[in-house]
């Protein structure tokens, strides 16, 4: 009986904290069709643009690693101030109009209920699933941030070593396993030639010769209308979320330096080999890592706001 009382008291003591956190089905009562509305928008876009999955994965990552998953990356700059969109790493982030489309539909159905931060998270999950990746339940209840500062954008770049890149992930309480798993999102990504040109303009023993020749041909076709061409990061299945990326880098077919180093560095090599050999393992860990990343520094409860328009902060109320 005493054990039951202690357990009950403990449950009561943590209940307020549990209610303040994210949870699956957060909009079940306030906006029952929220997730299906977002999924429909993603499905429509995928029918004409298979690359949107990579775009959403990148947007989600760039948002969560700056001030947490608070949709600060969606804010437009104006004459008075610049936003995160103006920061160098974010100039090629795209897919904003898809978030706008989903938000417009949600506002028509249940005004001021669903945050832009949750839309990014849900849309990314749905794009991953519709591109052959795992389906995973997404805890929701995020609130939108009130700050978007380009000076705060400091993201790990493609020329870092594994240990250097891991410093950024560790700062967000992510493990080495999480980092390698999340970089597996490059299975559907592309990179501009400027990000890997140094690897193909001189002999690089860590790159397959055939791939190097192919990339030189792509980058050599640069023109005035396309001064910085792109190449797929996964040479096998560039529009499918699968474990082919890990198989490719195991064959020295990593395009960017950080990708190839994942297969070469003792810190990450074992994880890469495991994913290359076991597609199910990658799918499971990718789902787990995406949920974990989506929980970084989230705003919940009464913090932040629920934006009416994802591109601008709500007007401040006068007291």
From TrEMBL:
<keyword id="KW-0479">Metal-binding</keyword>
<dbReference type="InterPro" id="IPR019794">
    <property type="entry name" value="Peroxidases_AS"/>
</dbReference>
<feature type="site" description="Transition state stabilizer">
    <location>
        <position position="58"/>
    </location>
</feature>
<feature type="binding site">
    <location>
        <position position="156"/>
    </location>
    <ligand>
        <name>substrate</name>
    </ligand>
</feature>
<comment type="function">
    <text>Removal of H(2)O(2), oxidation of toxic reductants, biosynthesis and degradation of lignin, suberization, auxin catabolism, response to environmental stresses such as wounding, pathogen attack and oxidative stress. These functions might be dependent on each isozyme/isoform in each plant tissue.</text>
</comment>
<feature type="binding site" description="axial binding residue">
    <location>
        <position position="186"/>
    </location>
    <ligand>
        <name>heme b</name>
    </ligand>
</feature>
<feature type="binding site">
    <location>
        <position position="84"/>
    </location>
    <ligand>
        <name>Ca(2+) 1</name>
    </ligand>
</feature>
<keyword id="KW-0408">Iron</keyword>
<keyword id="KW-0575">Peroxidase</keyword>
<feature type="binding site">
    <location>
        <position position="66"/>
    </location>
    <ligand>
        <name>Ca(2+) 1</name>
    </ligand>
</feature>
<feature type="active site" description="Proton acceptor">
    <location>
        <position position="62"/>
    </location>
</feature>
<dbReference type="InterPro" id="IPR002016">
    <property type="entry name" value="Haem_peroxidase"/>
</dbReference>
<keyword id="KW-0349">Heme</keyword>
<keyword id="KW-0106">Calcium</keyword>
<protein>
    <recommendedName>
        <fullName>Peroxidase</fullName>
        <ecNumber>1.11.1.7</ecNumber>
    </recommendedName>
</protein>
<keyword id="KW-1015">Disulfide bond</keyword>
<dbReference type="InterPro" id="IPR033905">
    <property type="entry name" value="Secretory_peroxidase"/>
</dbReference>
<keyword id="KW-0560">Oxidoreductase</keyword>
<feature type="signal peptide">
    <location>
        <begin position="1"/>
        <end position="20"/>
    </location>
</feature>
<keyword id="KW-0376">Hydrogen peroxide</keyword>
<feature type="binding site">
    <location>
        <position position="63"/>
    </location>
    <ligand>
        <name>Ca(2+) 1</name>
    </ligand>
</feature>
<dbReference type="InterPro" id="IPR019793">
    <property type="entry name" value="Peroxidases_heam-ligand_BS"/>
</dbReference>
<dbReference type="InterPro" id="IPR000823">
    <property type="entry name" value="Peroxidase_pln"/>
</dbReference>
<feature type="binding site">
    <location>
        <position position="237"/>
    </location>
    <ligand>
        <name>Ca(2+) 2</name>
    </ligand>
</feature>
<dbReference type="InterPro" id="IPR010255">
    <property type="entry name" value="Haem_peroxidase_sf"/>
</dbReference>
<keyword id="KW-0732">Signal</keyword>
<feature type="domain" description="Plant heme peroxidase family profile">
    <location>
        <begin position="21"/>
        <end position="314"/>
    </location>
</feature>
<feature type="disulfide bond">
    <location>
        <begin position="31"/>
        <end position="110"/>
    </location>
</feature>
<feature type="binding site">
    <location>
        <position position="187"/>
    </location>
    <ligand>
        <name>Ca(2+) 2</name>
    </ligand>
</feature>
<feature type="binding site">
    <location>
        <position position="68"/>
    </location>
    <ligand>
        <name>Ca(2+) 1</name>
    </ligand>
</feature>
<dbReference type="GO" id="GO:0020037">
    <property type="term" value="F:heme binding"/>
</dbReference>
<dbReference type="GO" id="GO:0006979">
    <property type="term" value="P:response to oxidative stress"/>
</dbReference>
<feature type="binding site">
    <location>
        <position position="242"/>
    </location>
    <ligand>
        <name>Ca(2+) 2</name>
    </ligand>
</feature>
<comment type="similarity">
    <text>Belongs to the peroxidase family. Ascorbate peroxidase subfamily.</text>
</comment>
<comment type="similarity">
    <text>Belongs to the peroxidase family. Classical plant (class III) peroxidase subfamily.</text>
</comment>
<feature type="disulfide bond">
    <location>
        <begin position="64"/>
        <end position="69"/>
    </location>
</feature>
<dbReference type="GO" id="GO:0140825">
    <property type="term" value="F:lactoperoxidase activity"/>
</dbReference>
<dbReference type="GO" id="GO:0042744">
    <property type="term" value="P:hydrogen peroxide catabolic process"/>
</dbReference>
<feature type="binding site">
    <location>
        <position position="234"/>
    </location>
    <ligand>
        <name>Ca(2+) 2</name>
    </ligand>
</feature>
<feature type="disulfide bond">
    <location>
        <begin position="116"/>
        <end position="310"/>
    </location>
</feature>
<feature type="disulfide bond">
    <location>
        <begin position="193"/>
        <end position="219"/>
    </location>
</feature>
<feature type="binding site">
    <location>
        <position position="72"/>
    </location>
    <ligand>
        <name>Ca(2+) 1</name>
    </ligand>
</feature>
